[in-house]
């Protein structure tokens, strides 16, 4: 599937994987809608794209935690270019705290952003996709959507929930419209500010770079792999180092061994 001239709505576009995706997609000559909370950062990302691409880029701020605004935001996104071909659900927040030290409010906040915000945009856009009999949902989940480690209980819970929701939606779409696709992207450690912005047990930001994150993949490499997965309409893709990807298969085929190993894994 060629992406040229496709209308792509990208959330979480102001930094990290989302920012790298914005640059990679702009090179593909798509029509791009960039969303995140900070308008000034979205404008910066747009300004960093090639000048030839900028006339086909729109900025649409949104807050995934503000659920009562997301239907109107979705309608506004559709109006920017008249339709949407692909929604890349990339926005989210992470966590760095033990379960016993994490307030329920933090768990709720993570679920509100990573799960409810994502499925809200998905549901509000679904009638548009069904009417056009075409569409593609791309969900940037995580390896944590398939496994769980210490210090990630709320984050892993939200990402696991995304997999259940989108696996179900994919099965439904097969019966209703075989031209609506769903791609789940599961990165491991990527060198972004995700740990800097991750929530501690009391809801404050960690403001510290994890060594594992700092040693992670270059987001430019991850962006290229995500775009390739979109083009080939993959169902689910794992992107990361050998340890992260192997952990997915170890959990699947040798869950007892995985449970013993994960207790000792350094994830901070």
Keywords summarizing the entry:
268 residues, alpha/beta, Rossmann fold, 7-stranded parallel sheet, 9 helices, 7 strands, 46% helix, 12% strand, globular
Summarize the structure.
It contains nine helices and seven strands, in the order βαβαβαβαβαβααβαα. It has 268 residues and is of the alpha/beta class. Helix 1 packs across helix 7 (219-231), helix 3 packs parallel to helix 4 and helix 4 (104-132) packs parallel to helix 5.
Descriptive account of the structure:
The relative contact order is 0.14. This protein has a 7-stranded parallel sheet with strand order 3-2-1-4-5-6-7, sandwiched between helices. It has helices at 16-27, 39-48, 70-81, 104-132, 153-176, 211-214, 219-231, 242-253, 255-262; strands at 7-10, 31-34, 57-59, 86-89, 135-140, 180-187, 236-239. Helix 3 runs parallel beside helix 4. Helices cover 46% and strands 12% of the residues. The protein has 9 helices and 7 strands; from the N terminus they run βαβαβαβαβαβααβαα. The protein has one domain (7-262): NAD(P)-binding Rossmann-like Domain (Rossmann fold, 3-Layer(aba) Sandwich). The chain is globular.
